[in-house]
Amino acid sequence: MSFTVSYRGDGMRILRKIGPKGQIVIPKIIREYLGIKPGDTVVIEVRDKEIVIVPGTDPREFVESFCSVVKEKLTEKIDLERLIESEIEERLALR
């Protein structure tokens, strides 16, 4: 299958045709660059009038990496709702 490649300042654009079932094939060069393998998950986002496809994150990897950010356990209970409210108040005060 052929495709057209063009380069912009922020990356590569490839023109592909949509198949009869609404499918597209991600070119090998892009799959290799992003480390996408058969069976991997991708996330499809719609931004304005563009479709953005990014590699998905394994939920276990995400939780492990998220939890490993803080090495120490909390010593006191946090009122998350109040924390968010105070953050919003601070940001509004800066305007």
Task: Write a brief caption for the model.
The longest helix has 14 residues, at 80-93.
End-to-end distance, in Å?
53 Å
Q: Give the overall silhouette.
A: elongated
How is the biggest beta sheet arranged? Answer: 2 strands, antiparallel
**Rg on CA atoms, Å:** 21 Å
How much of the residues is beta strand, in percent?
15-25%
Residues in helices, as a percent range: 25-40%
Number of strand elements = 4
User: Given the structure, what is the number of helices?
Assistant: 3
Q: Could you report the average pLDDT, rounded to the nearest whole number?
A: 79
Text of the CATH class? Mainly Beta
Any idea what the CATH architecture is? Ribbon
How many structural domains does the protein architecture include? 1
* Strand arrangement across the biggest beta sheet: 1-2
Walk me through what this model shows.
- A two-stranded antiparallel ribbon has the order 1-2.
- It is of the alpha+beta class and 95 residues long.
- The radius of gyration is 21 Å and the shape is elongated.
- The longest helix has 14 residues.
- The chain has three helices and four strands; from the N terminus they run E-E-H-E-E-H-H.
Main features:
95 residues, alpha+beta, Pemi-like Protein 1, Chain: D, two-stranded antiparallel sheet, two-stranded antiparallel ribbon, 3 helices
